[in-house]
Amino acid sequence: xxxxxxxxxxxxxxxxxxxxxxxxxxxxxxxxxxxxxxxxxxxxxxxxxxxxxxxxxxxxxxxxxxxxxxxxxxxxxxxxxxxxxxxxxxxxxxxxxxxxxxxxxxxxxxxxxxxxxxxxxxxxxxxx
Length: 128
Fold this sequence. Notes:
- The chain contains four helices and two strands.
- The protein is mainly alpha-helical.
- The chain has a domain at 54-126.
- A two-stranded parallel ribbon has the order 1-2.
- β1, α3 (79-94) and β2 form a beta-alpha-beta unit.
C-alpha cells in the first residue's frame, strides 16, 4: 500500500517506494506537484489490435536484456513470433540465464498440431 500525506505528493511517494527495486525502474518526465487523479474501475472499451511483426518483437526482446526477469509470455498466436522468442530464449540460456517462455495458439489449430508445436518448443529449450 502506498500512503501519502501533505508533505509529499503521490508521485514522490511512488518514486521513493520503487527506489532501489530490482523489478521496477521509474522516472519522471517533468517535475510536478500535481496530485494523481482519482479513477473509477470500469471495463475497457474499443481500441484496435496493433499490427505486430517479428521485427517488433525481436526489438522488444533486445530491450528486455537490460532487466532481470524469469518468464516471457508473448501476446500473439503467431508461430513465427514464437520461433523468434524460442531463439532469443535459447541464446539467453546459453549465456547462463534461467529463463522460460509461454506461448499460445489459436483454438482453430488442431490440438495434435498444437501439441507438436509445444513439443518442438520444449525440445529446443532442452538442447544445449
